[in-house]
Amino acid sequence: MRNLMALLAGSMFGAGLLISGMTNTLKVQGWLDVFGNWDPTLAFVMGGGVIPMALAWAYSKGRKPALGGEFPTFGKPEADKKLIIGSVMFGIGWGLAGLCPGPSLASISFGGIGGVTFLVAMLAGMFLAPMVRAKLD
What we know:
Layout lengths: L1 H19 L4 H8 L9 H19 L20 H17 L3 H7 L5 H24 L1
């Protein structure tokens, strides 16, 4: 049952990415181009994700998931070096490629070398990150 629910949630997430335009790199780069030809429509996509998630966090306090396990807990409230470096790297990658992890996976479904290239680079970065982190610590 958990795998079925995960498939359903992932399918809904992927469909939402496609419908909202988050897999369109030009739309994402237009959102990030605040001093040029800015496209504010993705603000509605972000609000459509942030608002229900905030409500879900509030609703889940003191509850258990219906399918077992535990709800995730909040991380540390302060910004540390790892969070800041990771956020900057994510933002640079998102701005350059116009993709982030979820949309890169969804973009593979309709072809194109850009999504595949981004996905390979992202996986390489995930593999190399622990080694770089160990050298920085």
